[in-house]
Amino acid sequence: MEKKVPAINIAKIPELQRRILFTLFLLAVYRIGVFIPTPGIDAEALKGFFRAARGTLLDMATMFTGGALENFSVFALGIMPYISAAIILQLLTVVVPHLERLSKEGEQGRKKITEYTRYLTVVLSAVQGIMISIGLEKMTGPGGEPIVLEPGWPFRILTAITLTAGTAFIMWLGEQITERGIGNGISLIIFAGIVARMPSAVGNTINLVRAGEIEFLLALLILFIMIATVAFIVYVETAQRRIPIQYPKRIVGRKMMGGGVQHLPLKINSSGVIPPIFASSIILFPATVVGLTDIPFMSRLAESLNPGGWLYNLLYVGLIIFFAYFYTAILFNPKDVAENLKKYGGFIPGIRPGQNTAEYIDRVLSRLTFWGGLYLSAVCILPSILIWEFNVPFYFGGTALLIVVGVAMDTAQQIEAHLFARSYEGLLRKGKIKGRYA
Q1: pLDDT of residue 148
Q2: Please, are residues 124 and 93 in contact by the beta-carbon 8 Å criterion?
Q3: What whole-number distance in Å separates Cα of residue 253 and Cα of residue 306?
Q4: In 3D, which of 189, 151, 261 has the Cα closest to residue 31?
Q5: Which of 21, 284, 337, 370 has its CA 20 to 30 A from that of 356?
Q6: With DSSP H G I counted as helix, E B as strand and the rest as coil, what are the percentages for the chain, rounded to 5?
Q7: In a domain, 2, yes or no
Q8: How many domains, the chain?
């Protein structure tokens, strides 16, 4: 049984403390930026417009930006343009020879691809900023008051520059958290935005129950669905398919060394929360612009993509399953695993080393990824459909719960890994001291 390292040991590790405090500080900076408004906007008219857009994709976009879109702050675009750019670059890696070569050049190649991702993020942010500013000029608040105070190209250019700079700053925050903090910076930024708005969503739900708009038994049912969803996420995220690996015994001198059976653990959901985030980004990128325009065709398209609609659900499930396979293929290469096993003499019982082992691992991984994609789709869609039907704030949907629970588990695992590493270092130092004076 694996021994757990007490979390209280964090106080004894200054480096881990610095990483956690650094992460919390940058997340606090991000939350402050959510409330810094973009110039030239009537804030009250904009809030009235978003109140009328409850239950639409704009509501979901507001959730992913932590309320920045509703406030139309400097962070209104959030981190989604960066995620969209990363998706585009990863897809192009498969078809563009130059990018494929870079992806195989190790750390230097990855740095170059990251640089291209940053440039593309700036371009996407600028385009999206221009389109949103044009759409906002045509929109009005609930009382017919214009949202944009002084329409025209000066407002459009200023908005595009402001939103692009905001997204670039969020991108920098995420990279700094990943390098110098704890956890994945991009996921933690989305996590912080969702968690920060959940208390207000809880308060709104309680007010709806008190006002009689939601029955008390229905609220209990929703609470039960949330708890069951969280328990299901934790169970599946920790589940593994363990493939036995046999290592032969070797004679070294006069002693028999090695041998025994180890296991290659394969998670049911190897891609984590990335597929729902990527799928949401693909849907939200055009929908955010579409939802802020008054073009009849675009408005009908936005309505058909509302959460709970059949087109939205079909598109969302398809993208989740696609990105589950796509991201798993990036993270895990069966051929490399098979070559490493063959190099060190390991083999799967009943399977020949080399190509047959790679094909076997790939077949097992494909089946697991299929079930993992279905699991992600069920968690993201089914609770959201129920909650959408009950007219409950979207923050309690399956996508939000999956991201919150998944990111929290990943971050906790990284903290635990730091604790284990430090505890092993302590044991090694003690062993050296004992050996010196033995």
Answers
A1: 84
A2: no
A3: 70
A4: 189
A5: 370
A6: 70, 5, 20
A7: no
A8: 1
Q: What is the pLDDT of residue 369?
A: 93
Spatial separation of the C-alpha atoms in residues 60 and 63, rounded to whole Å: 5
- The CATH code of the domain that includes 33 is 1.10.3370.10
Residue carrying structure tokens 């959901």: 269
Residue 272 lies in a domain: yes
Query: Residue 397: left if φ>0, alpha if ψ -120 to 50, beta else—which one?
Result: beta
Report the pLDDT averaged over residues 25-40.
91
Residue 331 neighbours by CB under 8 Å, 6+ apart: 270, 271
Q: How far apart are CA 372 and CA 390, in angstroms?
A: 27
Helix H or strand E encompassing 283: helix 274-291
| Contact predicate 324/275, CB 8 Å | yes
The residues facing 207 across adjacent strands are none
- Distance of alpha carbon 394 from alpha carbon 400, whole angstroms: 8
Contacts of 66 (CB under 8 A, 6+ apart): 30, 31, 34, 75, 78, 192, 193, 194, 196, 197
Range of the domain at 122: 7-436
Left if phi > 0, otherwise alpha if psi is -120 to 50, otherwise beta: which for 144?
A: left
User: CA 23, 28, 31 angle in degrees (round to 5)?
Assistant: 130
Residue 393 lies in a domain: yes
Q: Are 55 and 394 in contact (CB under 8 A)?
A: yes
Question: 378 CB contacts (<8 Å, ≥6 apart)?
Answer: 398
pLDDT of residue 152: 87
Q: Is residue 221 part of a domain?
A: yes
- 50 contacts: CB under 8 Å, gap ≥ 6: 58, 59, 62, 69, 70
pLDDT cut 70: percent of the chain above it: 80
Residue 201's Cβ-count burial label (10 Å; 0-12, 13-18, 19+) is middle
Structure tokens at 233: 């996420």
Our CA dihedral for 126, 132, 137, 140, rounded to 10 degrees, sits at -160
Report field, pTM of the whole predicted structure over 0.90: no
Cβ contact 347:245 at 8 Å: yes
